Amino acid sequence: MTRPRPRGDDHERTSPDEVDPTADSRVTAVRAAAEHPGLVELEIDGMVAGVLPKAEIDLDQIVAGLRSDDPRVIAARRAIEIRTTRTLALDLLANRSHAAAELLAKLKKREIADDVAHAVIEELLEDGWLDDAAFARSRISAWRAEGRSDADCRRRLSEAGITDALVSSELLAIDSIEPATSPEQNAAQEALARIRRSIKGTDPASLRRIAARMSRRGFELDTIRAALRQCELDDSILDEDFDQEPDP
Predict the structure, then answer these.
(1) Rounded to an integer, what distance in angstroms lies between the CA atom of residue 157 and that of residue 31?
(2) Is position 93 within any domain?
(3) Do the beta carbons of residue 49 and residue 43 sit within 8 Å?
(4) How far, CA to CA in Å, does 121 sit from each of 48, 125, 205?
(5) Residues 82, 109 share a domain
(6) In what order do the strands lie in the sheet with 47-53?
(7) Which residue, 105, 78, 96, 191, is CA-closest to 135?
(8) How many distinct structural domains can be found in the chain?
(9) Do the beta carbons of residue 177 and residue 137 sit within 8 Å?
(10) Global pTM?
(11) At CB < 8 A and 24+ separation, what contacts does 30-35 make?
(12) Is 15 within the bounds of a domain?
């Protein structure tokens, strides 16, 4: 006796790997957020995907039953991602100021999609939350006060993603505020004072060690000489064959 074949055997079966994971994924609810009436929760497959302001979601278009791969749902989910990422970015900015490229790199490290991260950075630049010129200006002023050279400031700002052209522009802007003084020389004076806390001698060997440390911080020889003279220290020890000598 021939057994009847199960229904569907005449058709090629779909491999589990070929099944679209979003094929049966659908919007299950769109409702006002309980604690924030001005926000709307988007629920997919029984899980809250996120919230959006009512003004940013069309309640006539996004309704329960829509597939999650519907373009309207995809757009809503992207808007949620941008909103969530913006909140994260603002939290990072609340801790300290960032350059735009620096903040972008931090967002990408958290596995945020490139297009979302870039969109958030553009928004923050437009809204004034990010300002590379102001960032460079504040960092230069702070670092100079710590005794850092302009060369060191350039290096640090370059690592943060600030262009050399912008750094040069901000250095000129800062220097023009007090043209009678030299911020670089002031920074050298501060650096010298800090170094002398650990190297207290005034003999030629000690002064050469001090000068070597200042040189490694990026100060030019003429600036180092001037700093020594302002402290009534002998700069003649730098007249011949000065080099960055390692500390013993």
Answers:
(1) 46
(2) yes
(3) yes
(4) 26, 6, 51
(5) yes
(6) 27-32, 39-44, 47-53
(7) 96
(8) 3
(9) no
(10) 0.63
(11) 30/57, 30/59, 30/62, 30/63, 30/64
(12) no
Q: Specify the CATH number for the domain of residue 52.
A: 1.10.10.10
Tokens 């220290």 -> residue: 233
**Are 132 and 162 contacting, i.e. CB atoms less than 8 angstroms apart?**
yes
CA distance 32 to 29: 10
Question: Same structural domain for residues 168 and 191?
Answer: no
Identify the domain containing residue 191 by its residue range.
Answer: 183-238
Amino acid of residue 38: G
Within this chain, do residues 123 and 158 fall inside the same structural domain, yes or no?
no
Q: Give the number of other Cβ atoms within 10 Å of residue 44's Cβ.
A: 21
Residue type, 40: V
First CA to last CA distance, the chain: 99
Assess if residue 9 is contained within a domain: no
**Sequential pLDDT tens for the chain (248 residues):** 444 444 444 444 444 344 345 558 999 998 988 888 889 889 999 999 889 898 888 888 888 899 999 999 999 999 999 999 999 999 999 999 999 999 999 999 999 999 999 999 999 999 999 999 999 999 998 888 887 888 889 999 999 999 999 999 998 888 776 554 577 888 888 888 888 888 878 888 888 888 888 888 888 888 888 888 878 787 777 765 565 555 54
- Chosen domain end from 87, 103, 127: 127
- Phi, psi (degrees; rounded to nearest 5) at 164: -65, -35
Query: How many residues are recorded in the chain?
Result: 248
Judge if 49 and 64 occupy the same domain. Answer: yes
